[in-house]
Amino acid sequence: MPAHADAWFHPGTTHLVCEDYAAVSPAGSPWTAAIVCDGCSGSADTDVGARVLARAALAALVDGRFVDPSTAAWQASVAARTLALPDDALDATLLAALVTPQGVRVVAAGDGVIAARHRDGRFELWQLEHPDGAPPYPSYVLDADRHRDYLSTFGDTLIARHRRVDGEWSTSTAPGGQLTLTLDPTEVDLVLLGSDGLSAFAGPEPVRSESGPMSTSIAVETIVGELLAVRHTAGRFAARRGRRLVRRTCPRRGWRPLDDVGIAAIALSADQECAA
Q1: Residue-wise pLDDT tens digits, 105-117
Q2: Structural domain of 96
Q3: pTM greater than the 0.85 cutoff
Q4: What residue ranges in 89-200 does DSSP mark as E strands?
Q5: Is residue 275 part of a domain?
Q6: Which H or E run contains 144?
């Protein structure tokens, strides 16, 4: 099945530098892949470290190898040392997707958002959150003492909130700080990876989400719905949709992205039309 990927990232209004990074496999690559890394604001130089980690993971994906987040962290650390970056510069989440003969394989290490648009235009999403706001970064494996201290303080279990195509939500846990999925390309035509910045859009007035109380935050499913409303998937389709969101939709509705946003998407057909 033809597949095409694109990525885009944008700084939030509260950040001086964008610590999100997103990338996809080069055009003409035999394997189609997408990746998003969100650097930790509490660690230095993670804007650079997120890029190094993403590129280390992408090197495996474009070779047709499903990425292991811990292995990617070790490989990134080698490159980081040549740049005189400490290991904690690699403190970043890692979300990756690879199109394989068995389906679209997705792994998320740390927090973030995974979304899948079904071929009837409806979509489902998975939102990963750490209850204490301290996601388990793959880079923690680089330092045994640091990893042990993190686990003793926070544990490594993520909360996985799943929104089905009918709009109903359920909650489970993702032990080990990772969620792995395989999405069926006969059912899904667009896969989106996003940083947790997708859940950090503020609005002018309190509103109620599908699954929560009144809040000035724009529901993550609303933001994801805007990004998945793609009619043409040729070229820079994810960048076009992201720019439309921040340049047109947000000013018109009084929304603003508080956090950095990074997205990478894979379209599983050639320039498919969709009614969404």
Answers
A1: 999 999 999 999 9
A2: 4-267
A3: yes
A4: 94-100, 103-109, 112-118, 123-129, 158-163, 169-174, 178-183, 188-194
A5: no
A6: helix 144-154
Amino acid at 23: A
- Residue 273 is assigned to a structural domain of this protein: no
Write out pLDDT tens, residues 139-152.
999 999 999 999 99
Q: Residue 178: which CATH number?
A: 3.60.40.10
What would the two tokens of residue 39 be?
């650097």
Would 163 be classed as within a structural domain?
Answer: yes
- Please state the rounded mean pLDDT for residues 69-97: 97
> Would residue 22 count as lying in a domain?
yes
In sequence order, which residues have a C-beta less than 8 Å from that of residue 144 and are 6 or more positions away?
none
